Amino acid sequence: MRQVAIAIFALLLASVGRAQDSTASKVLIPLIVTDSHKELVSGLKPSSLVVSERKSAVTEIDLLHGLDLPLELGLLIDTSGSERDYGHMNEILAGAKDFVNHIVRGPEDRVFFLTFAATTQATAWLKKEQLNGVSLDVKLGRGTALYDSLAMACKERMGPRDWNHPTRRVLVIISDGDDNLSHITRDEAVSQALMSGVVIFAVDTHIFGNPGRGDRVLAYWAKVSGGEFFAGFTPKEIPKTFSRVMALSEGTYFARYVPPASNDRVHEVEVKAAPKEKLEISYPRKYLWVR
Fold first, then answer.
1. Whole-model pTM?
2. Cβ 249 vs Cβ 25: under 8 Å
3. Rounded to whole angstroms, how far apart are CA atoms 104 and 174?
């Protein structure tokens, strides 16, 4: 894991030159906080958290709630040949559209759909009133370029995080995690996600045999970005899975604070529960800070 962390750190540094400058004074760290029963915690207070960078405590923290921020949502749907073999594409598409119709509500909320196999097809950003007329390219094809597709979603749709404009940035990836055509690695792909400040919810469609490399890739992306990985996917689980993703996204808190003085562009952050607090916290371990 240390080697992986170093690799991601190096990839982020290599990508800094492509990031846009920002004059914001505060960073925004997404936090999914649950109790010992895996239930989302409501009414979270800054005193319940211990936030640090480079072992230096951050003392002045504001907490924003996910529902109070505009939503920027991307749905990445695998349409490769393996998905055809699983035979539940129609259920996935129906569940995804229902999910989007429920979670995209506010006037500033927006969403895009991206389907991928050997190549990637993405819609433009869509507002609530535009969803009825959207159609997806669901031609099932051979080969999978998952890593390239994640990078495209982050670079060409999300873009670098704008600290002056706080938003709730979410990517939902529906795939078995396999990749055999991308031009970049899994770590190069996730470095783009960290630059964009997105939280990844990965829904694993693999249903045959034992978990493989693809499952591990999806679980890793979710963990690094502060999201959640959903395994054991079946058509019957689709509504339940999307409902959980919606609850986690809307229940996310954001820790907002001025980063400790540092010349580094890539900041490592640690968030723990305060003493006597029994909390589980998911959050991105790194973020790109460009003044």
1. 0.89
2. no
3. 18
